[in-house]
Structures are given as structure tokens and as C-alpha cells.
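=== RUN LOG ===
request id: a7f3
mode: sequence -> structure
chains: 1
length: 323
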Amino acid sequence: MKRRVLGRTGLAVSPIGFGAWAIGGNRFGNSYGSTDDAESRRAVRRAHELGCNFFDTADVYGHGHSEEVLGAALDGIRPDVVVATKVGGNFYNRDVNPLLIPRITEALGRPLAAVGPDAALPVTHDACFSPSYVRFAVEQSLRRLRTDYIDLLQLHNPALGLIADPETYRVLDDLKAEGKIRFYGVSVHPPEEGLAAVEVTRPDTVQIVYNIVRRAAEDRFFPAARAANVGVIAREPLANGFLAGKYRQDSIWEQGDIRARMPRPYVAQLAALGARVAELAGEAGVTAAQLALRFVLDNDAVSVVIVGMKTVAQVDENLSGEI
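=== RESULT ===
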């Protein structure tokens, strides 16, 4: 697989990266259905065999489980790959808002006081980007990933005010100086947040949603990122799987799968778009997923697109195209 440069980090990354949200599993009801850890590990290794060297996860995916699975799968090949993770979602017994204790206690099935300090909880109860919390969470990620450094640490969807504040990044600069991380970036939602990250000049990368359906990043964010040499990581290229053309408006998902919570009119709209992508892909002699990925990669502002994969079959389909 060819390589692209991830902005001013200088990292040479595969155009298609492995999105590890799904391999975090469905235990806490915020993922893409059930998983098999052994198959997840095989998928990671298969991706590496096919030339993928960029693996993106987050501590909150499966409340640490995605990082654990990824760390185990990368054992022995860690120096060959770029590992990106995220921090900010607080699912630990740490800095808990007293008003949320009843909800957490209900999810636990026992008093919160019975849980050790800093232990993982079944509820992501807040977003936290304080220096002390970031330091704590990074140490947990390093342990789960079985590594002593993180290539790219990303703040996971902070508020606009935090993105625009240079002080937010001071702890990241310190972690970089200490060798705990090599580079840092921000994962955002609307393009306005991406622009704020570029304008504050601190982050090396910005991760943003970009696909055939959601193209707002094209207008202002992509030109600004290109001018500042900020690496762009495009996520959700398949629009939660719909652009792979395999779902219909009457599709049903198991409880906990995020698609099960989507409004049915929205599901119908995405399913129709997926069907159209599948038609066009058939005419081009590729799969719908491959065509959707090609659309994203045809924008030269994008350094790497991360696509969620949890089986070897998905890896083979997504990485088998000519990239």
C-alpha cells in the first residue's frame, strides 16, 4: 500500500487506516454490535499484512477494551505501525459529579463507594480535559496498548472553547517533551471546530467526519488545514456502514448498536443513498465500500481515512482495492 504524509507530523501513513471503535465490543451499548476478540485480533494482523500501518482507537471504545485488543494484536509489530488513540471521555471512578452518582450506581448494580478509586465504570459520565485527568488517562492507555509511547494522542471531541484555548494543549506539549506521545491532535464534529483547531496552531492533526453524504468540511476546513500543513484524518467514510450498500430501510440491529437508536426516517435516507452507491459501484466494478473510500481519498487534503473493521472479511474488502 502506498503512503501519504500526515501533515507536519511527517509520519508516512497508509491511505486507509484501521478504525478500532467496533472492536471495543458492545458491552456498554455504544458500538457496532457484538464482536469476537480473536477475530478482531486476526483482523488487525490481516490489515497490517495488507499494508495498513495506521490504527486509530480511543480509550472510551469499550471502556478500554478496544485498546486492549489492539495492543495484544500489535504485539511484536508495534515499531512498524502508527498508533493513534483519544482521551477525554471519563468512564473512571474519578472526578465524578455527585449528581450523577445515582445513575452510575444503577448501572453498576452496587454502590459507587464499593468501587475502587480510578476503576473503570460502565458509564461514560463526563468529558474531562484537565491536565491531571489527561495524564492519568494517558497512563491507562499506555498500559492497555502495551507500549511506552503513543504516536498520536487526540483530544476526543472537546468543546469549541477548549479547542480554541492554547492552554488546553500545555499538558500535551509536556507529554510530548517527556516522550509519552510523539504528536497530538483533536477529534471534532462540525468544520467550525476543525477551523478553530487550525487557527490556534497547536494541534498537528484534526480528525473529522467526511464522506459522500457529509461534505461540509470541503468549503473552508480543508483549504485551511492544507495551508497550515495540518494532517487530516477522515472518519466515518461509510456513514456508519450505510454506504457499504448492505442495509435497507427496514434493517434491524441488536440492542446497543448505535444504529438501533437512529430515527427510522434517517435510516431510510441513508439506506437509499447506500443503494445508489452500490449501483454506481457495480458499474465501476468495485464494491460500494471501495467506491465510498475512493471518494474520500480523491480529496488531496485527506492524509488518511479510517474505516471501522472488526472481521478479516471486512479488512480484505476495504484494503483490497488499488490505493
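=== NOTES ===
The chain is about 35% helix and 15% strand.
The chain has a mean pLDDT of 96.
=== END ===
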